[in-house]
Amino acid sequence: MFHSYRRSAVSAAVLSLSCCATAWAQSQPATPDSRPAMREITVTGNPLGAPDPIAPVTSLSNDALLLRDAPSLGETLNGLPGVSSTYFGPNASRPTIRGQDGDRIRILQNGGVTADASALSYDHAVPVDSLVIERAEVLRGTSALQYGGSAVGGVVNLLDNRIPTEPIEGVGGRADVGYATGNREKSGGVLVEAGNGRIAVHADAFRRDSDDVSVPIDLPCDNPQRPGEARKICNSASQADGGAFGGTLFFDQGWIGASASTYRSDYGSVAEDDVSIRMRSDRYALEGEWRPGGFFSSLHMKASRTNYGHTEFEGSETGTVFSRDTNDFRLEARHQKLGNLEGLIGFSSESGDFSAEGEEAFVPTTRTRANAVFLQEDLATSWGRLSLGARTEDVKVRSGGSTDPDIDRFFVGERSFRPSSAALGALVNLSPQWRLTSNLAYTERAPKDYELFANGPHVATGAWETGDADLQKEKSAGVDLGTQWTSGPNNARINAYYTRFSNYIGLLSTGNTRGEEGELNPEGEEGLPEYAYSGVRARFVGIEANGTLRLLGNEGLARPEEPSTLDLEWRGDVVRATNTDLYLPLPRISPVRVGATLAYGTGPWAARFGFDYYAAQDRVPEGDRATDSYTLWNASLTYKMKVQRANLTWYARIDNITNELAYSATSILTTTAYPSVPLPGRSLKVGLRATF
């Protein structure tokens, strides 16, 4: 009853915000600066605001983000250079960057910590929705030291402006509605911002409901709500809603703001036909900046508290209950320029309490405390720029055992670590068109609680997972070399990277099986396969490339009074990951990918048509399933119009046009649940975005 009431309340909030915003907008003068757009500079991995980042960064906003909208963060970002997805069905998918996933990818919200359990298990979703995100930034590689050793693979920063960082005059916002045929998804979101130059407020709300996802083959299903065979992924339906309210007070020497947000989701876990997950996440954030003058030109502070939890249900019975309460604090002090040198020093503190209760809990109750100091310095030169970063941390991870007195299989005790990292980057301007970049980094990461203390059956992986309380720090050294060419509308970028781990913590098969109570079975006896977290040497090598080529300009298309263009957007990447102790491939690595899109625009119309080709992935460790090659075709059409003060964008997008049957090489389900969870089949999505 409460669940239905809350969903009705969110729907009412969406409608109320839309109506109030429209009425207020019509009563305000239509000034062009009523709602300033977010600054276009990329801030992730570039806290000093340099015009050209040294690290390889991709930013998505506006139509580019709208046309990628998906229920999960991983699928929204999948296909960007070097980025793939863990794909645990349509609802739980985390980004994979350069072959690395889990706690080697740092997911941030406005530069602060997002606290959840998505890195713990593939079936745990990231509690964010692109309907209320203004920009997503992906930093690839090992240069984001200010975010800790967990950023060794990369950083995803999600910017939502829930705490406005720039003054707002008047009122503005946006509203979205959409419908997709492949899963009968109905989605809607609204965002309103208002201010008088001194005070700015933000409010948003969203809701997303979807049915089971259509696929090209018949699949069996034992879910009581939809038994039998159908061309659907069994138990893949989902519902999600949430919202936020925030505000900022601006004063002569800075600003201070706060926000409160909530996220709720109820979705099926596709690894089992009758298991569902009900998730909640409440986040409270405080952020501010003070510009005192003197040696330190600005002090920037972020603080947040997140209360996260989810319950796994087996039918109607409660299974395992997870909870994580996290506090995060970050302070950055930027100093005045010393000649051509500018930079900052910072301090961060993160603490989290985690618990898992239930017979199938595979991780004990834990407490993690991490404090760090870091610095970032940039030196401008006549030929480009040099960048230096360093970070040292103090990390304590404690296991309190199980909350169930009948379960005594967990280690009880504490481990302490002092990881340190450093990076050096360079940008060289060869000419107005050509630029070279390089990044060299050494990174250390403290093992996570589950890597140290896990000991139990993990339903999502179909294995008995065992941690190692004696694990040492994960250590890696990496180099990234890139070149970029720009000439008018034409551009090309290529990056090559090499990362070597002297101690890579991986979940590796032991060759043993365990019984229901965790006892080792005799050789050859069936049971849950045992996988243990172990440190091995590893190597990641890869190349990413993408660019745009202008095929035709206005002189060759349509009418001269309506600017028209035809561009070819191309992309490709490859990564090769090896366990160099045994010279065997590491699991769940993306195959070679190439793609291209023709993008046509004339006046208010824009059309896109393209493909993404995934090569076969047969370089897999023993026990993993190889995947065949496949090609996914897609297309989209948008039309823009203005109605009074509102700008409308109508759009239609069709994915997997040929209804190709495909399985993801980066999904564990391709091995553990084959053939039950292929990639989605053909789907048409139509929608409308209104901005005012």
Automatic annotation (TrEMBL):
Residues 248-657 form the TonB-dependent receptor-like beta-barrel domain. The keyword Transport applies. Its main location: membrane. Coiled coil: none annotated. It comes from the Bacteria. Residues 55-155 form the TonB-dependent receptor plug domain. It is a multi-pass membrane protein. It is found in: Cell outer membrane. Transmembrane segments: none annotated. Keywords: Cell outer membrane, Membrane, Receptor, Signal, TonB box, Transmembrane, Transmembrane beta strand, Transport. Gene3D superfamilies: TonB-dependent receptor, beta-barrel domain, TonB-dependent receptor, plug domain. Residues 1-25 form the signal peptide. Belongs to the TonB-dependent receptor family. This is TonB-dependent receptor. It comes from Variovorax dokdonensis.
